[in-house]
């Protein structure tokens, strides 16, 4: 038996926690890295099927969650039993509780949101007549939980104030089998860029090689120089790195 549901992830995050700070050349790269870590959790579509696994001892249902990332233009499947989702929730809450003891308001807020979420109950399957209805309820409930969790963790600026939440992000992405190798290379590629002021350098092209728009009025936070010596708009090269890492000009690979 299989059940199916479809959701689209919204961009709404946890309110009340802003990114803070002033956008300067010194923190531009850090802000962009945090944006990558957050945006990869936002632009998702989920579709879940409950698949009966007839094990030699006790049959069980495996929940196959197909995740489509609009951000990375990739699709993959994360397969877990209900008990594994339950343990993930417990691990997240336990880690947040440890940090709450250090008076972290952000961990406290996230803990409250996760603990108050209506997670599907633990009543055992195959001991009730309404097995099909229970599986449908779990499928929908687990998907709702993942959607909500990703929304909480992608709130604007949340990792600026608490690095513990960054580790929660990584734990969640690892459980959902995100393309972490791709994301890590994306971040390394961004870190390899140099932010420059056009008044201090001679730009050998009249327009950005990616968007083909004139450089216009730029400051040091918008013009970047790659390791291979080519200039791009910060936004353009970041978008380029979401799907590929070769330089648009010379094809040298970035982030390795």
Automatic annotation (TrEMBL):
It comes from Achlya hypogyna (Oomycete). Residues 41-182 form the PX domain. One of its GO terms (molecular function) is phosphatidylinositol binding. The keyword Metal-binding applies. This is RING-type domain-containing protein. It comes from the Eukaryota. Keywords: Metal-binding, Zinc, Zinc-finger. Residues 208-251 form the RING-type domain. PANTHER family: ALCOHOL-SENSITIVE RING FINGER PROTEIN 1, RING-H2 FINGER PROTEIN ATL61-RELATED-RELATED. The lineage of its organism: Eukaryota, Sar, Stramenopiles, Oomycota, Saprolegniomycetes. Coiled coil: none annotated.
